[in-house]
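Q: Here's a chain of 309 amino acids. Please give me its 3D structure as tokens.
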Amino acid sequence: MRTRLLLGLALASSLGTLHCKGGEVGGDSSTSSSAEASGSGGASTVASSTTAATSSSSGQAGSGGAGGQPLDPCLNRTICEDFESTAIGQAPGAPFELHVSHGTVAVDDTRAVSGKHSLKVSIEATTPNDTYRQAMLAVTGAPLIPLPSDTVYGRFMIWTDRIPDQTVHWTIAHGDGPQAMLSATYNYGGMGGLMANYYEDTAPLVTDCWQTKNQMFPTNAWTCVGFEFDGTNDEMRFWLDGVEVPELHVIGLQKNDMTCTNQGVNGQWLAPDFQNISVGWESYQHDAIGAHDAWIDDVILDDTPIPCP
């Protein structure tokens, strides 16, 4: 396993909180911009163990409502999963895989948005010398991959009781794949506040870059997370509770090395040919508080925008 250290400079000194509600994930936004917030970021992607899950998935979209009934949110969606058909303690099956390192991914009934089940993603406590943790639900093949126009919209609900401090970079939405002769990654998560992250294994200096928002991620409540990875235009966008966070709208070809851990790299966020789309929890530095749990529910991955529940 390869590990790559972040610079770990503090971001939290000027962070505030803002919880947004309502709206639709995806589509045009009059407030979208490529505004950047300087701060420290960087990230690390490592080779992880990949375990094929064994139990059945709700998979493809079902039928819509009629006579005034609400439409099935899975209608015509490429992947839609509410975890209701998977037994407690088990992992959803195809088309999903588990990408874990010192973590677990399993269906749980502690809390849920719809129905009685959700997916609990847990990572073990770190130590100063053993920091990388991963508990992600991934899709690496049909019916999602290959992506139409190398673009995907994702939406999921997430609940966690805490966010690590500003010394720990964490990821909840991830996409990676080959980029020319290299490998590149788009991540959404945070480090103190919210953060978009780009990693490419350039040499001799890696391209490890960030774009931030001075806003804390909500805790102790179900939050609707939406994202778009647009490989055709080297662009990525992020929504919380249906409202776009414009500071995390990244236009990759406009980027440079000013917000990268290594000065002198190209700095553009050149999207890969996405081969892995994952949601869950991943972190890269020592979290002094200890182990971490989060719950995921109502996951949809598709080629068109997705509203919040």
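Q: Can you summarize the key feature?
A: Residues 1-24, 28-66 have pLDDT under 50 and may be disordered.
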